Amino acid sequence: MRSNYLALRLLALAISAIILTTGCGEEETPTATPAATRPSEALTATAAAAQPSETPTAQPTSGLLTYDSPDHGIRIKHPAEWTKDEQIMGAVVVFFAPTEGPSDIFQENVNIIVQDLSAQPMTLDEYTELSLGQIEQFITDPSILDSSAVSLAGNPGHKLVYTGKQGQYDLKWIQVWTMKNDKAYVISYTAETSKYSTFLETVQEMIDSFEIS
């Protein structure tokens, strides 16, 4: 029963991820499916984050502003020119990179999810295993490039780097997550494969600045 329940929660997470990627590049907030309208069921989103350093630091970063969410106990630096959206269901916040012109129909983005697991506690390894199992179900032609232990906000975490297709897009993701006080904290960076490296350094700074109170 427990494993089935967790799988359902991860299913909602994967659906939320799809919405956040396919909705990029539009001015309007992407439409959420019923499963994604329940933030408490969204474990991670596929708008994934850049590779975190092994010893992240919360020192101020030049050229970045601070996003602070006291309700979720998180803080992160972000570029001033990136668009911030706190209205996408299933995510605390999504930061969209600037478009490169009319032909740029996909906006690279960074997404943060905070998942309360107190009603159904799990370990980092369990969370990781179930998350890995969802990729093949919700991403077309997935390829895992890296799955390894990392540190996020000073806590043990896991990093996942993978490629795949969502609709017409060939995408590349980095997701990194950690657990603290029965909550999962997930940062994701999603980009078109051909533009993945464009914002990678900036996203790395964002990840390194992430704090959990």
Characterise the protein shown here.
Helices cover 22% and strands 36% of the residues. It is of the alpha+beta class. It has a single domain (2-212), classed as Mog1/PsbP, alpha/beta/alpha sandwich (Protein Transport Mog1p, Chain A). The chain has a seven-stranded antiparallel sheet, sandwiched between helices. A three-stranded antiparallel sheet has the order 1-2-10. Helix 1 (2-22) packs across helix 2 (124-138). The radius of gyration is 16 Å and the shape is globular. It starts with a helix and ends with a strand. Residues 1-16 and 21-62 have low confidence and may be disordered.
Characteristics:
3 helices; alpha+beta; Protein Transport Mog1p, Chain A; three-stranded antiparallel β-sheet; 213 residues; seven-stranded antiparallel β-sheet; single chain; 22% helix; 10 strands
- Spatial separation of the terminal alpha carbons: 33 Å
Note the beta-strand portion.
35-45%
For the largest sheet, list the strands in their spatial order: 3-4-5-9-8-7-6
What spatial form do the alpha-carbon principal axes imply? globular
Number of strands: 10
CATH superfamily membership, which one?
A: Mog1/PsbP, alpha/beta/alpha sandwich
Give the rounded overall mean pLDDT.
76
For the sheet with most strands, the description reads:
7 strands, antiparallel
Q: What is the CATH architecture annotation? A: 3-Layer(aba) Sandwich
Q: How large is the count of helical segments? A: 3
CATH class: Alpha Beta
Class by helix and strand content? alpha+beta
Tally of individual domains:
1
Stretches where pLDDT is under 50 for at least 5 consecutive residues are: 1-16, 21-62
H/E order of the elements?
A: HEEEEEHEEEEHE
Indicate the radius of gyration in whole angstroms. Answer: 16 Å
CATH topology: Protein Transport Mog1p, Chain A
Helix amount, in percent? 10-25%
